[in-house]
Protein: Allantoate deiminase
Organism: Kaistia hirudinis
Amino acid sequence: MSGSEQGEAARAEASLAMARLDRLAAFTDEPGRITRLAFSPALKAANAELLGWMRAAGMEARIDAAGNVVGRYEGERPDARAILLGSHLDTVRNGGRYDGALGVIAALAVVERLAARGTRLSHAVEIIAFADEEGTRYGGTILGSWAVAGRLPTDWRSRVDAEGVGAEAAVRAFGLDPDTVGTASRAGSPPAAYLELHIEQGPQLEAAETPLGVVTAIAGATRLLVTIDGAAGHAGTVPMALRRDALVAASECVLAVNRLARTSRCVGTVGHLRVAPDAVNVIPGRVQFSIDVRSAADADRAALLGEIRAAFETIAAAHRVALAWTVTSETAAVACAPHLIEAAAATLAEMGLPRQLLASGAGHDGIAMSTITPIAMLFLRCAGGISHDPAEAVDARDVEHGIEALARLTIRLAG
Ligand SMILES: [Zn+2]
């Protein structure tokens, strides 16, 4: 192929990918929105559509025991472990059309390119579309990549969604057998690597004016619930000097989280706050609020939490309020494999793109996959850094770069 023919083919791949992403967006549990919750009828229909595309591309494709779509494009060496490309097809409620689906559709484009050229790599190339990444329906991922990693949450069967549908019933309605979902595990014969292209879900690539970045790590996160107990009282009769106002103390705490996070290598957010008794003429007696702290380095996260805690103690003493601090969840950071980070960065360099490394502040299937195989992620610029929203948008030219990078990286590793 000449250079201009190659350019033409790459543009056609990207425009087909964009059309497929639009097509997938039409599979929804809620008309007028994009909602494909784990194990829902819309996800089942999207899975069926993808199965058809995979088979048309010459892949052997199936739904695994946990509801994930898996396609395989054979390699030349039967003994070589597959390179696994993937992402997820489930979405949050009223989500966007690129979070998850982009990585699956880009992977499909990579295999279609190989098939069209009659190219077989030494390693097989597999594509997986996880069925349960967002965790929207059952308070966290219950199957999906954790099933593939062979680490199901022990309580998954007893989880119930907002409509009262139990996880077992949902899995059964999806056409799966709850007793065999564990057989989706690849822990016994893991792939050689797991590669995922995903929208960035943040504004860094846009700010750097570059289409792609290489992920160094998926941030660890600590979530806490803080309760401050002061004294409720009449807003008219209690003099200012005698008050123990829980909301005033909590407000200083919120500002402290923001101030301390700004000088750390972490991000810190107070996103939930509840005031009691929550009345216009009553001094707040109790306030509960959340804290979410994330960092690619666990030590930095621990250090920031220590500083926040110390600042809170000082604030509580000054306002004569009681403070209770409860960690509600904690996950360690997951590093992408150094050799894959370098391979991805070399791929971008080969394409004439800058070496852009960044950490992922959001969780991804790579967390589970990292327990059985080395992982790498490429981030693709998205408009305004917006995600989990119908306004999610990517540029077709960036998608062209994304497919090209994923194809080159796959060939680099599987060739
Ligand atoms: Zn995602």
